[in-house]
Amino acid sequence: MPAQVRLRAQSPQREPASNDGVLLAGVTRIYRDDRGAAVQALAGVSLAVAHGEVLAVVGPSGCGKTTLLELICCLQAPDAGTIACAPAVLMPQRDLLLPWLSAAENAALALRVAGCSRSQARARASALFEELGLGGFEDARPQELSGGMRQRVAFLRTLLAGKPVLCLDEPFGALDAITRGEMQGWLSQTLARAPRTVVLVTHDVEEAIVLGDRIAVLSPRPGRVIEELEVDLPRPRARTDAEVGSLRERALLALGMAKRT
Ligand SMILES: Nc1ncnc2c1ncn2[C@@H]1O[C@H](COP(=O)(O)OP(=O)(O)OP(=O)(O)O)[C@@H](O)[C@H]1O
Ligand SMILES: [Mg+2]
Question: Whose CA is nearest to atom 6 of ligand 1?
Fold first, then answer.
């Protein structure tokens, strides 16, 4: 049984979701150090993500976005509130590739852990390398890849974990604007072909609109949900679409980054 499932069973505040969705009710997280000092990261966060829905989460730096994803992925436990969630995998903010493995081996890591043979795991990972613009780099070590390429390998590793819920922590944050646009298009198409429940943390409000079905805007720390915006726009969406511009204004207003007229 995977470690993640064991952790769920041990925590009284966790229940498996019956429908591959995510449900958080009144979730609070307070970090405490050895001297008793406390930092409250999240305060009473309630959010529902339906099966196959993409929830984008935006908020100022330090408002608890990474904490939220780690809670959903069972990497930490809430201090109050409840979380019901299907098995979830985290793509961390930093790529955390293993330097002694090749790019293909890094991408295939979860498959190997799940018991897939080396050759099968490599074949499944390599099949996606071309699609991500990584063709020919299967045997490269992470230190031989650019930052953007490393991030794409990390993204592939997350996808290949095969969990129903993907938690993506600023997955394209380190990419240049052109590559980021390409990756957003690729993710959008991938999810259209094979929908997954996704919680996508991003600093980029336009990215949230282009990729999300809904956007949760968090307050400064301790993070609370201050606004939820439906993104009821046809796909594919472009940053230059007029409706994207007006939703962007609403999200920026909620974040306090635009002037009210
Ligand atoms: N392991 C930890 N121990 C103590 N405090 C922590 C820990 N992890 C996060 N924090 C604190 O909790 C708060 C929220 O951190 P978190 O990393 O969740 O924010 P974030 O919204 O992801 O920020 P960023 O946008 O900069 O990535 C911060 O004040 C941070 O200092
Ligand atoms: Mg973070």
Answer: 31
Per-residue pLDDT in tens (0 to 9) along the chain, 261 residues: 333 333 333 344 556 565 789 999 999 999 999 998 999 999 999 999 999 999 999 999 999 999 999 999 999 999 999 999 999 999 998 889 999 999 999 999 999 998 999 999 999 999 999 988 899 999 999 999 988 889 889 999 999 999 999 999 999 888 888 888 888 888 888 888 888 999 999 999 999 999 999 999 999 999 999 999 999 999 888 888 899 999 999 999 999 875 544
Amino acid letter for position 78: P
Maximum pairwise Cα distance, the chain: 60
Lining ligand 1 with CB less than 6 A are 31, 39, 41, 59, 61-67, 93, 221
What residues have a C-beta under 5 A from ligand 2, the ion? 65-66
For residue 63, the tally of other CB atoms under 10 A from its CB is 22
Domain boundaries, the chain: 97-162
- Beta-carbon neighbour count of residue 249 at 10 Å? 13
Sign of the Cα torsion 125, 170, 113, 8 reads negative
